[in-house]
Design brief:
mainly alpha, 59 residues, elongated
Amino acid sequence: MNEIFGKFEALFQIDLVYFTEFYSYVKEVRLAESHYFLNEGQYCQHLGFVKKGAFEKFL
């Protein structure tokens, strides 16, 4: 958690107390290379952060 907090603190100037509350709602999910974060026709109901790798968008 300390590594992630350091990155968030640098980007968003967030306090550790608020970050701890936010982090309690976070769930780590790993997507296989052939899976999508969001499929066509779906509405996005999630917030995602890339820890390793990259996203590609399709329009």
